[in-house]
Structures are given as structure tokens and as C-alpha cells.
Amino acid sequence: xxxxxxxxxxxxxxxxxxxxxxxxxxxxxxxxxxxxxxxxxxxxxxxxxxxxxxxxxxxxxxxxxxxxxxxxxxxxxxxxxxxxxxxxxxxxxxxxxxxxxxxxxxxxxxxxxxxxxxxxxxxxxxxxxxxxxxxxxxxxxx
Length: 142
What we know:
Elements: H1 14-20, E1 28-37, H2 43-46, E2 51-57, E3 63-69, H3 75-83, H4 86-91, E4 94-100, H5 106-120, H6 122-125, H7 137-141
């Protein structure tokens, strides 16, 4: 993916981040919404974060990646795979995480990621990136 388009999304402001903090519902374990430098992403290993939603921003605070990690691949492993891509490594500056319960179902994890995409309004502004639908989000996380 080194030649792919990495569109810039919105600047992650305090009001946007506050809205995201509620998206995980009953699965939410912790929020790490202060920007952690990309080079320090291994800190999430120390926090034992395996499952969650991560938001990566550039130096200007604009969203460059919204994704998910599950207990099957782990957060740090997922982030490290992104770091192997020179195009991403060139723009990724900070990461934030919604830590979810490791037993979060795949369906709920997809819905949470989709709900984050909806709240951030990135489905149109960050094309060609795509996110799962937020169908039944509320019933899945309530």
C-alpha cells in the first residue's frame, strides 16, 4: 500500500473526541485520547491493549487513519504493520485509542468502527478509504 492515497480527514478537536468516548458502550475499557507520538505506540503493549479502535493523525492533528485491532492480531502488531508502509510512516505522527474488551464480538467491533466513521464524517471526505457500516450499533453495544 505504499503508493496508496492517504487522504486527510478532520482535525481531531476536543468536542469530536468527547463524542467518540461514548461509542464503545459496554465494551469500552479505557480511552487514550491524548495524542501519543507514533514512535511511542509500543506503550499500548504495556497497557495490555489488544482490542480497540485507533485513530492516527498527522503533525497538524488531521485524521489520517481510522482502524480497528482485535485480540487476534493485537493493537501494537496492527500499528507496527502500518509502520512498515513508507507512505503511512511519512505522515503518521500520533495515535489515540478506544480500548475495548478483548471479548468484543467482530460484529460489535465493526459497528463501533463504523459509528466512529459516522461521527467523524469521514465516509465521504476520506475516500477511497472505507469503513464497516454502523448497522445495529446501539443494540450491539448497549
